[in-house]
Amino acid sequence: MILGVCLLGSTLTSCALPTVISNYVDSIGSEAGNKKIEYTDEAKKSGFTLEQPTTGVVVGKEEVLIQGSLAEAKAGDQILVRISKDGKSGQKIISIKDKKFRQAVPLYYGKGKHEVEVLIPGDSKTDYYYSATRFTVENSSSLQQIPMGYNSSFYRQYGVTLEQPIAGGKTYDGKVLLQGTVDPPSKSTKQVEYLVVRADKGEDKSNYYIPVKDRKFSQWIPLRFGAGDYKVQLTVGDLHYSPVVDLEVKNSVSADLRDLLPGSGMESDDPQIIALSKKITANENSPMEKARAIYKHVATNVSYDMKKDRNYWDDGALKTLRERKGICHDYALTTVALLRAIEIPARYIGGDAGEPHAWVEAKIGDKWIPMDPTWGSGYSAGKKFVKAYDPSYFNPNPASFKKTHKKPEVIY
C-alpha cells in the first residue's frame, strides 16, 4: 500500500491531504534479477511505462539509469525519484520531455542495496505525486554522495535539467563540469540566455556566467580557492539570487589559484588571449615590464564607450578586444585575462572613483601593484572620449592613487 505525497518548496514531505492508496498490480518473481517491475494503479491509469531498468532487482555502480514514458504527462511535468538506504533518503527530479524521460539517478549511500521509488505527478493537484513503481539496486561502489537541493517551482518553470553532475559529494580535480538543458515548457516564459553559477568555499566567493545555446549549456567551473568543500549554486539569469539547484563538491587540488585561473569574462585560457599576451610581452624580460606592456596595450587599443552605461553578462576580454571599446569593467576584464595568460597573478578590483569603478592589481614578486587602464586610456570632453595614453596610472604612487580610488573589493 502506497500513500500519495506532495512536494512543498524544495522538500519532499508527507502532507495533510487525503490518503491515496495505490495497490501494486503486477506479479513479482521470486529470484533476484528475475523480479518483475511492479506498477501501482495510478501508474497504470496514467500510462506510465518504465523501460530501464527492466527488472525489479538490478546492479549499479554509483548510479542507475531510469528511462521511460508517461502518456498523460503535461508540459512542465516532472518525475520524482526517491533513493533510500538504511533509514537515509534523498531525491532526484527528472524532467519529462515529449512524454518521455531519461536520466541517471545517483545511488547516494555507498555500497549495498538501495531502494528506489519513482513518483509521478497527480492530475489535479500542483506538487502532488503518486508512487508509480519501485525497485532495488545493488550498488557496487562505496562512494558516498550527497543529494542536490532543488527549487522545484523554478526548476519546472524554466525547464532546467542538470545532467552533470547528478549528485553532490564527489571530489574533483580543480574544476567541475556543469551540463544540461534549459527548455521552458510554457511559451510565455522568456527563453533563458544564460545561467549564473556561484562556486563558494566558506567566505571566498566566485561568480560565473554560462551561456545557453540552442537550449543547452556546458561549461567547466573552476574551483579556484584550493582544496576543500565548495557549495555550487546554479541560477537562471533573471533570478540572480534564487538558486534553482545547489550541490556540494570537493576540490582535491591544494594550490590556491584564485588569481591565476580563468574567470567570467577573463578568458585567460583561450588560445587567442594566450597568443596575444605572448606577442605583447615578447620583447620584455621582467614580470614588471610584461605587466606594463599589457597595461599599455589595453589602454591604447581600447576606447571608452560613452554610450554603454552598464555591465552585461557576456562582457569579457574576447568581446572587448574584438569591439575595441568598453567601459572600466571591460578594460579590467581584458587586462586581468592577458596578465593571467602569461601566469602573472592578477585580480579585478571593484571600487569607487567618484562613481562605481573597476581597475586591476597584479602581483609582481611579493607585492600587489595597482593599474587603471581606463584612466590610462584617455579622458572625456563633454560627451566625447578623447584618446590620450597616460602611463602614470600603471603602478602609481600609492598615496595619490588611494585619494581617487576607494572602497576596493576583489571580485572573482
From TrEMBL:
Protein name in the entry: Transglutaminase superfamily protein
Domain Transglutaminase-like: residue ranges: 320-375
InterPro entries: Papain-like_cys_pep_sf, Transglutaminase-like
Species of provenance: Baia soyae
